[in-house]
Request: fold
Amino acid sequence: MKRMTGLALATGLALLIAGCSSQSTSGGSSGGGGGAAAAPPTGAAATTARNFNLAVKCPGVHWEKKHGWSDQQIMQQESVEAEDIPACEQWVQAQPKGYVPPPPGGAMAAKGPTAPAGGGAPAPAPQ
Reply:
């Protein structure tokens, strides 16, 4: 049993190190020889990324704007550009009342069945 655990841990560590070394972005040359940098997303990918960023950052931007934060403070806190603040306000206004963003992908599948809202056992069926 100890050997199996040790082997599993060693394999995981080796995979972790291999993954980290392939992700290296240092200024020196890489051992793999693939020195090309990844291109920024264009077209539909850029639009999807922007919409995702708005969905993530806009609730915070709206809250800060509602509580009297200056645009400069919001830009510094949320790492957004000046033109994103009005876009966030429009995005928030477009959401239905009581809108709650969905959880990250896979979170619902991992949870499984949930208990009733009351927290106790399910109500008995009427007879």
About this structure: Confidence is low (pLDDT under 50) at residues 28-35. The longest helix spans residues 44-66.
